[in-house]
Amino acid sequence: MVHIAEHPHQQKNQQTPYFVEVQRFRQTWIWVLLGALLGTLLFLGGFQIIQQRTSGIHWLSTSSLFLMGGIWLVLALLAYKAHLFTQINETGIHFQLFPFHFTVQRITWGDIEEMYVRDYDALSEYGGWGLKYGQEGKAYTISGRYGVQLQLADEQRILIGTQRPIELEKLILQLRYDYDM
Hints:
- By secondary structure, this protein is α+β, with helices and mostly antiparallel strands.
- The protein has two domains: 28-80; 85-179, PH-domain like (Roll).
- It is 35% helix and 33% strand.
- Helix 1 (28-51) runs antiparallel to helix 2.
- The chain is elongated, with a radius of gyration of 21 Å.
């Protein structure tokens, strides 16, 4: 069961975290694609203003070009602000995929039946990165191909992406030893 919690940095009696990771969408190809689309829309809109005529495609008016450019700009800003926050401490796993979650989600150790780091293919298993649903359950990913797979007591399967799989694997082994998980 996933619980909603206060942001761990705002808790008064915060436990010392064993693991903290913040991932962001910083892949070059995303920014090249967004920049190319935005640049093309703004160029066409500016060209139409200078030429004082539309490009010949009826639906491609100057105002629609600038509207689409504005939408792309908002999407680019959301992608820039998006992040996956993961923290593991003595109470469980805390994570937040902003802007999909406005609060940190919490999974307590008692709710987790199985936990391991695994290699995954975001495109074939989940249809891409972000907040995704697939045959394997829910995935919260930003980039890469590694994540911590959780099998919960209520049969939910959750994958949380990581860029630090070796460190996380060592932590899981240590937690199993220390807490008999």
